[in-house]
Amino acid sequence: MNWLDAVPVAVASAGWLIVPGLLMGLLIGLRGIAAWAIAPTLSVAIVSIVAAVFGKVGIDWSLGSALVGAAVAVVLTGLVALVLRGRSRGTVRSDPRPVTLAGLLGVLPAVLLGAVIVAMGMGRPEELSQTFDAVFHYSAVAYILDSHNASSLTLGALGNPSTPAGFYPGGWHDFVSLSVLSTGSSVPVAANLVTGVLAALVWPLSCVLLVRQLIGRNTVALAMTGLFSLGFSAFPWGLMAFGVLWPNTLGLALVPAAIAVVLSLSGLAKDDLIGRGRAWVLAPFVLLAGGFAHPNSLFSIIAIAVWPLFTGIWRWSRRMRDEGRGRRGTIGLTVSIVVFLAGWAFVATSSAFKNVRTFYWPPFESTARAVGEVLLNATNGRSSLWVVSIFMLVGLFLVWRVRDQRWLVGAFATVGMMFVLTAANNRSYTQFITGYWYNDSYRLAAILPVLAVPLTVLGIVRAGECLRKWLTERPKPRLGRLGTVGLTVVLALLVIVASKGLYFRNQVATLAFNYTGMEHSDDGTLADPREQAFYTRIAAKVPQDAVVANNPWDGSALVWALADRQVLFPHMDIAWSSQQKYLAEHLVNAATDPTVCRDVRQLHVGYLVIGEQRFWHGDGRRASYPGIHDPGTKPGFQLVDSDGDLKLYKITAC
């Protein structure tokens, strides 16, 4: 498959991520940049809620049912908006057309640049992410397609009947399944294209709205934001390669738009495009979308939003005092602080987050180096992004001088400090701060661009204004027709050139690491193209209702996603039943062990697939499957297909 063939998959993915939320946003009263940028957040909330409701009441997840469910959600929102339109409309005015066009058309270069980075970084549309977590995500999509159940409330068990159905954020998986259902593409292709759309379209749109709320109706700033949003390695490219953390990528792509809503709530937006009334309507959808995408995004929103929210509350409290209602202002401020601290204390002690809070990653660098990486956008040993970092630091300096925007400095310092704690310290006493991101430096580093993008844009815009002022104050000014807009454009172009296309090759290399970069690795390959072709081929030789026994560490867990045949072990590390554990230890003795045949029949296991053992040789969990290996000439197994060490057997003993 080539990338031109994959365009319909990208279009379908973008359609699902944009259209439902765009219709809902228009009915709520959003227009222009706000409507388009909030659309993915609303779409994630709509699709995830519909999936959860369908799973609860027993409605099959399909293309038709998802369309109907989304349509019903949009219509209901329209009816509610019609009833409340007098209250929610407020005094917010839409942007002039040039401002809207600058923001939206400015996203087009980002789409093109992002598409090229995705194509070069992934190599092929069907290229696999050769990572531990990717196995779970591929299998989760395959489970949704097979079971017709896309509910996040039960996804954690991957359909294992002996494992309690647990919550796992399924927003990303829901959209990948819809992409497959809409186009007939394979699971890996849909996974890559949905994630590519998040990076090249959803993230730039989200950043444009945040910049619009911060800077106001500045056409140059809005026009450059989409492109500059792709110039940071930590996000989106780093998070698309590390882990692989696709659900986190979805959640974090929505965070800038969420902060834009918070700015409306706190009264800190410049020429507010959303309005406080609509912001209150949007707030529940923002929270639901963040939770269903990945709870990490909710904590990321909180870590940033606490600064503008308390800035707004503090200003309101002072206004109350100036109006002679100081007691009311003091009570409101005190209650806000108590509620925040109580919520933090609850999360910090709740058993629901214990496994997340106590996850340990060893520190790997000094504090000084970690601080330098934050300031140069070079986190986790990546290359320093000198050019954009200089303007980001200029932006930090300048926003400190603007009272309404000082919260940006506090938010940036907070996220930067959390990265430093994980990279250089990561002790038990730091977990109450960083634990909600698994104490993981990569996840925390990915939050920094949420703030770095608007700070960089602001730095370039303000630098253009200062440069014009300096030139006009000279004894013989020679600006000609080149005013502030022209100087800002020239500065932006110089940044793009000096950074060699916003570090284009660096972004490609970052993304490629766990895709094409692992094809020749002795310890990092789950399934090379030959294995993938074999796993796809065996679909014609295994009945649809048969379960295939496998050792997930040899890449055969991918059979479910590649061949649409359920495997006994769809991931390397989730809870297995006693029957599954027995087969993992004794399946090869099927001809002589009656217990094996009993479990085989109960679990509907009919075949055994053998892959190549090349992934994570040093991981001790690989030894948990001693009974699943090539039976050779042992009785009870009939060779059906083979390609070198790759083999498919039919279990005849049972």
UniProtKB/TrEMBL annotation:
One Pfam family in the UniProt entry: DUF6541
Keywords, ordered alphabetically: Membrane, Transmembrane, Transmembrane helix
The protein's name: DUF6541 family protein
Entries under InterPro entries matching the protein: DUF6541
The keyword Transmembrane helix is assigned to this record: yes
TM segment ranges: 6-28, 35-55, 61-86, 98-122, 189-211, 220-239, 245-265, 277-293, 299-317, 329-353, 383-400, 407-424, 444-461, 482-504
